[in-house]
């Protein structure tokens, strides 16, 4: 069984939808270590609603912070001390999909970032969405992960942009699991369709 850590090149690039597809494709458990804001409709709730099968366990977040902002700042508002050592991955005999918060270098305190939550044996999946500057952000993210020795793969999301995706593939030389199009909506059936497409590349 493997652990997959889903990160993005920025916020709102499609990590939660990608995570739901991976949970469906792998019959995996899901865990969001830090949830900041939107506590009545967390990413865990969203993924749970999008997964069709009943095999997955949706593990409780280690920290639920009230304010939708960087974890270090949201934790400060809540008078909570965040640290990587205080965040323990749940034990499971199944594959586990972990969804990060924002990008790799989002701080959780004065000296640690989301990247400090990624263990050396995790497979890291980077979600890249096209916007002005996304090539730079994707290359920075992937190259940092590769320099640390991580096993890295990409998922593209949003409106298709062939020249952007092509240059990223050429310059990173990492596998592409697939792409998630700009769908009018996402429900269990749409997620299931993507899961079937992605399975062979996982």
Query: Which band does the percent of strand residues land in?
Result: 15-25%
Class from secondary-structure proportions: alpha/beta
What's the mean pLDDT score?
97
Please report the total strand number as a whole number.
9
CATH architecture: 3-Layer(aba) Sandwich
User: Low-confidence parts, pLDDT < 50 over ≥5 residues?
Assistant: none
Alpha carbon gap, first and last residue: 12 Å
Sum up the overall morphology in one term.
globular
What is the C-level CATH assignment?
Alpha Beta
Major sheet size, sense and barrel closure: 7 strands, parallel
Please sum up the structure shown.
By secondary structure, this protein is an alpha/beta fold.
Describe the fold and architecture.
By secondary structure, this protein is an alpha/beta fold. It has one domain: Rossmann fold. It has 6 helices and 9 strands. A 7-stranded parallel beta sheet has the order 4-2-6-1-7-8-9, sandwiched between helices. Strands 3-5 form a two-stranded parallel sheet. Helix 1 crosses helix 2, helix 1 packs across helix 6 and helix 4 runs parallel beside helix 5. The longest helix has 14 residues. The N and C termini lie close together (12 Å).
């Amino acid at each position: 069984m493997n652990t997959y850590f889903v990160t993005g090149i920025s916020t709102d690039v499609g990590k939660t939808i990608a995570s739901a597809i991976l949970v469906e494709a792998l019959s995996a458990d899901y865990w969001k270590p830090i949830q900041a804001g939107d506590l009545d409709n967390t990413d865990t709730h969203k993924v749970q609603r999008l997964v069709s099968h009943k095999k997955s366990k949706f593990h409780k977040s280690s920290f639920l912070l009230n304010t939708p902002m960087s974890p270090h700042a949201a934790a400060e508002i809540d008078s909570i001390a965040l640290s990587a050592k205080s965040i323990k991955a749940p034990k499971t005999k199944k594959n586990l999909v972990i969804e990060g918060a924002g990008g790799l270098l989002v701080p959780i305190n004065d000296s640690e970032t989301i990247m400090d939550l990624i263990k050396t044996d995790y497979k890291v999946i980077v979600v890249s969405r096209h916007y002005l500057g996304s090539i730079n952000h994707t290359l920075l993210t992937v190259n940092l992960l590769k320099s640390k020795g991580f096993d890295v793969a990409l998922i593209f999301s949003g409106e298709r942009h062939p020249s952007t995706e092509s240059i990223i593939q050429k310059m990173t030389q990492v596998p592409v699991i697939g792409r998630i199009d700009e769908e009018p909506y996402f429900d269990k059936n749409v997620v299931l369709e993507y899961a079937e497409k992605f399975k062979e590349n996982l």
